[in-house]
Task: structure prediction
Amino acid sequence: MAGMRIVVCLPGEARSRLDEAVAEAMSPFETDYSRGEELDIWDGWWIRGGADGGGFQLLPGYEEDPRIVHDGPRGDGTREPSLPGWCAGGPREALAFAEIRAEAAGLAGAAWDLWHGLAPHHPPAEPHREVSYRPWTTPDEYRAGRLAELQAEEAFDAQPLVVAYREGVAALLAAHRGYVLGGGFLYDGAAGAVGRTGREEFVAEETAFMPGHQHVLTLDGWWYGEDGPVHGACDGPGDCPHAPPLPEPYRCFTSGYLEALPGDTLLVHVRCHV
Result:
C-alpha cells in the first residue's frame, strides 16, 4: 500500500456538507473486496494540500472566501494552517489554472532561449546514452542495469552545456516571482529535450501537465488514478458500457478537465492510502 493524491470534484452546494460529500464521492472506490479489484483502491483518506503546498493556489481576492477549503484535522484533532496563497480546495473560479500554465510557458520559453544562448559557447552536448530496459531476471542483471542507467545519467549531467543550463534554470526559477512551479520543472527530462526540439514544441511539452493535477475523481464518478479510468457506477472496466470522459493519454487532459468545469464547482484535494 502507498499514498496518492486526487482531486475530488463536487457540486458547489456540497461545501455545506463537505466531509459527507467527499465520503459519498469516494465510497465506490473503498477497498472492501465485494466488487472488482479495480474498484478496491483506498482504505483511508484525508483532506490535505493547503499546509504542504500540494493542493491549490488561490487567485488574489479569494483568501477570505468562505467556500475555500483548508486541511482537515490531524489525528490529535489539531489543524495545520494553509501556507499563504494555498488551500486544500475551493470553487474552481477561485483557483489558479490558466495563470500557472501561462507562467510555466514563459519560463519554458526562457529556458529554451537559455540553452540556445549557451550552446555556441560550450562543446555540443551528447544526448542520453541509450540503456536497455529489457526485463532483468536476476539480481546481478538488475544491479548491472541500474549501474548502467546511473552512469548514463551522470555522463549526461557532467557535460559543460548541461551544467551551465541547469545553473541558469536554477537562477531563472529563483528569480521568478509568481505562482510556485515546484518539483523538477525544467530540470530533468527538459534538459534532455531542450536541445533537440523547436521552441514552440518544447514549451508545449513542458507545460502539457500544468498545473499538474493528474489524478481526478470527476463529477460523474470516474476515478482517474494510477491505473487509468474506473467508473464508480459500474462493477469494473469489464462490466462498464460507458466511455471514459477523457481521451488518452489522460494525464494530459485532467487539468484541462478541471479548468473547464463551471466556476462554482468545488474541487477538493484529498490524500488517500491506496
